[in-house]
Specification:
CATH class: Mainly Beta
Largest sheet: 6 strands, mixed
Number of helices: 4
Helix content: under 10%
Radius of gyration: 16 Å
Order of helices and strands: HEEEEEHEEEEEEHH
CATH architecture: Beta Barrel
Number of strands: 11
């Protein structure tokens, strides 16, 4: 039976808008648990260069990913003043929370399918399957990220004992 709930476009919804390296990005708000700031990450040995370490949030350790480095940009210099977007991550193993280090969080926008454009990556050799499209809502361009594709299982796996 076709009801409005099951015929709605999966891209429609509320998106958290944020900036990384002066570029506007967006992720589905349903993935976001909260936004925190001024946390010092404890480095993890033998982790990828984009994993800044772990922080403990209300007794729960979570890995913190420098989104700049994960996207192939220069790393974040001032970690103390950078907000962390806390994501609720569903995984068979690993952390239940994961933090994304960004430059600035701006606002939440409601996006419709008409406001999201496909960027036409099909047929290219670029490994950017984590980009869902580009929003031009309210005259501001934002790259919409599929965060589950961008962050792999090894990004959220903490060492045993943590």
């Amino acid at each position: 039976m076709n009801t409005p709930e099951n015929t709605a476009d999966p891209l429609s919804g509320k998106y958290l808008m944020f900036t990384v390296n002066q570029i506007q990005y967006a992720i589905n708000l349903l993935k976001v648990k909260e936004i925190v700031g001024k946390k010092t990450a404890t480095p993890l040995p033998e982790s990828p260069n984009y994993v800044k370490g772990i922080v403990t949030l209300r007794g729960i350790p979570m890995p913190v990913i420098d989104l700049k480095v994960r996207l192939g940009l220069p790393e974040t210099e001032d970690l103390e003043d950078s907000p962390i977007i806390v994501l609720q991550k569903v995984a068979n193993q690993g952390a239940s929370l994961i933090g994304l280090l960004v430059d600035k969080v701006s606002d939440v926008n409601m996006l419709t399918p008409e406001e999201i454009e496909d960027i036409g990556m099909a047929g290219t050799h670029l490994k950017q399957n984590y980009i869902l499209g580009v929003s031009k809502a309210e005259g501001k361009e934002a790259i919409i990220l599929e965060i589950d594709t961008l962050l792999s299982a090894e990004d959220i796996t903490l060492p045993k004992g943590l």
